[in-house]
Every structure is written in structure tokens, then in C-alpha cells.
Amino acid sequence: MGLKEEFLSLLERDREFRYAVIGLLGLEDLRSSVKTLADAIAELIEVQRKSEERLGRLEESHIKLIDRFEGLSREMGRLSETIGFSLEDIARAVVPGWLYRHEGIIVKDLVRKFFYIEGTEIEVNLYGEGIRNGKRIIILGEVKSRIYRSDVEKFYESVERIAKAVREPIYPLMFAFYIHPSAEEEARVRGIRLIASYMR
């Protein structure tokens, strides 16, 4: 019997010899590593399952949040309409005194006015005919709950068109609850006075 055959025979007949060979070959360590790997895979699968469950709950919460946001947007739209009218009333009460104290302009009433210029209607929230240093001056005002750069740019276009039509000195102003910093810079460049509701 050759060496190979004798070795295989011993492996089959002698359990202790078999374990000794396994130890020498490191198969026990290999078996342990395989078990560790299997445990790690099982743990990973469980984590994935839990993550998917959390993701499902997150998607449900996201849908609910969108529904609430849309509802809030509708409410804000209705509130903005209400605030828009009341804010005009506040502006009509506050602006004449502000103009007199800060600009020396005397104006009695500020009203909503429509201009028809070259077939286009232009609406102005605040219109008044005032006096400064004995000379007539037209007050044109826009009232918004919040003023941003784009609002100033849009109002300036209306002022430019009206100025060409009335051919009198104009004092343009915008009145709001909140004025964004970008609007302040744009208004300064355009020569438009911004007045916040808290200013006196």
C-alpha cells in the first residue's frame, strides 16, 4: 500500500488522527470563519428588513406631510387675501403721517386707483395728490404683506409707465409687514421708498 492510500485509510478509520489533520490544516478556523460570516450576513439581512420597514413608514409620513403642507398653503392663500385688504387700511392710516414727518409731504387721502395707459390697466394700491414745498407731487404706493426684489422690480415698471402718462413729480413707495434685504437694495437703486408697518 502506498503512502497516499495509507493516509486516506487512516483518515477513514482513526477519528483522533482525522481531528489532528483538521487542526493542522486550519479547517476548524475556516469553519469558525464561515459561521461568523453567516451570522454577519443574517444580521445584515435583518438590518435591511428593518430599514425597509422604516422607509415605508417614512414614505407614509412624507405623504401626510405633503397633504398638510397643501392644506396650509390654501389657508395661507386665504389669509393673505384677508391681510391684503386690512394691510391697505393700515397703510392708508400710517403713510400720510410718515410722509409728513420724514419727507415734508402733505397728503390727505390715499386711495386705490386704476390707470389706463396704452390700452393696459395698471392698478395702484395707494394714490394721493400731495404738496411738498408748495409744489404738487403724486404719491404712488404698492401694499404687500412681504416685499422681495422681484416685487420692487415689478412695481418700478408700473411707476415708470405711469410717470410718462401723468407728467408730474412722483413719490413711489411700498408698504409691507416684512421687507427682505434684497428688496432694500433694489429699492435704493430704483429710488423707491420702502416703509414697514412698524415704522413711524
What does this structure look like?
The protein has 5 helices and 6 strands. Strands 1, 2, 3, 4, 5 and 6 form a 6-stranded mixed β-sheet that branches. It has a domain at 85-196: Trna Endonuclease, Chain: A, domain 1. Helix 1 crosses helix 2 (15-25) and helix 4 (149-166) packs parallel to helix 5 (181-190). The chain has helices at residues 3-13, 15-25, 27-103, 149-166, 181-190, and strands at residues 105-106, 111-117, 120-132, 135-147, 170-179, 193-196. The longest helix is centred in the first third of the chain and has 77 residues, at 27-103. The protein is an alpha/beta fold and 200 residues long.
Write the layout of secondary structure elements.
Layout (H helix, E strand, L loop, with lengths): L2 H11 L1 H11 L1 H77 L1 E2 L4 E7 L2 E13 L2 E13 L1 H18 L3 E10 L1 H10 L2 E4 L4
Parallel strand pairs: 4-5, 5-6
Antiparallel strand pairs: 1-3, 2-3, 3-4
Helix pairs in contact: 1-2, 4-5
